[in-house]
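Problem 12. The chain below contains 80 residues. Write out its predicted structure in token notation.
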Amino acid sequence: MDKKNSPKPTFLFGKKNYIIMLVGIAFIALGFIFMVGGGSDNPEVFNEEIYNWQRIRLAPTLVIIGLGIQIYAILANPKK
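Solution.
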């Protein structure tokens, strides 16, 4: 096979799509980081910190926003 006539490999998404995907991954990672913690070292003691607004409201919201950004990144037209 001649290398001069072989087709040039192309990426499925454009540069813009990959940048948007990285932003979405950052949102998802930040959401999971906010969910970490809140447990108790002693299983006999209940820690109210597990019901912090950061774990109950903020973290899931960031994950859902990140998933929405990922969907947008996949569907966005790289030609524009």
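Discussion. The two ends are 35 Å apart (CA to CA). Students who got a different answer should revisit the alignment rule from Section 12.3.
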